[in-house]
Amino acid sequence: MLVLNKITEIKAILAQEKLKGKTIGFVPTMGALHQGHISLIDYSKQQTDITVCSIFVNPTQFNNQTDLVHYPRTPEADIKLLETAGCDILYMPEISDVYPESDNRKFDFGYLDHILEGATRPGHFNGVGQVVSILLEGVQPNKAFFGSKDYQQVMVVRSLVKQLSLSIEIVSCPILREPDGLAMSSRNTRLTAEERQISAHIPKWMQEANQLIIEKGIEAGKQFINEKVSKVPEMKLDYYEVCDAETLESISDIKANQKVVSLIAVFVGNIRLIDNWMVN
Ligand code: PAF
Fold first, then answer.
1. Which of 21, 28, 151, 243 lies 20 to 30 Å from 61, alpha-carbon distance?
2. Domain count of the chain?
3. What is the pLDDT of residues 13-23, one digit of tens each?
4. Ligand 1 pocket test: which of 30, 172, 276 has the largest number of ligand atoms within 8 Å of its C-beta?
5. Domain span at residue 223?
6. Ligand 1: which of 56, 58, 78, 175 to mutate, judged by most atoms within 8 Å of the beta carbon?
């Protein structure tokens, strides 16, 4: 695996490969890699000829500086994992390579900016838009692979690609889960042993709530989650919403043939975890 820190080097190598007719798959990450990320590498390897991964903790998408400072960084372990997974090129830039000058662009993702993650993390998606546009324009892949744990992020990235008229296919990949059901996340490593145990309730409650939604309606599911979370002192609910799976608009009733997703953000101690499950 080639490990490079200049986008100009990546561009030069990929230009040669594209001339040979090779297709490029891209997996952007912020590092602290786990098997969820590796599954994205696997999808990319299955669907394209050359897989490029990036590791860059993007400061512009953190609205909380403490979160940025404490974001886990495990570069040596990441490189080993990627090598074993058969990743071809790793881009590990300094901030100055991604942002040679400050990026003042403002993206408009419409209502996606104002709901769920957009509402509780102001500026977050603008920062994601900035870095993802720079990375996509640098790597110019045929396909880019994103985890569907960040359900709203995938929608934002699709909107970004459309706005910038990039001919890149955005592939949304399934959530990988720990044996107890907790969605894999780099943030899980920051949980204490006790918090980690408590976190295993999240996927279980979400599935139970989904069952209630189907049997008794959306309000019953919401009440269930609110009650469960409020009984655990270490937990604080940021949001729990039931939405149309295509538009992410919050709904109160399920229409015939409507695809529905439930989404949660919850603090366990100081760590904010997100998850989502299809209801039907
Ligand atoms: O999902 C992430 O890890 C980040 O938001 C991304 C897409 C790599 C942009 O920094």
1. 243
2. 2
3. 999 999 999 99
4. 30
5. 186-278
6. 58
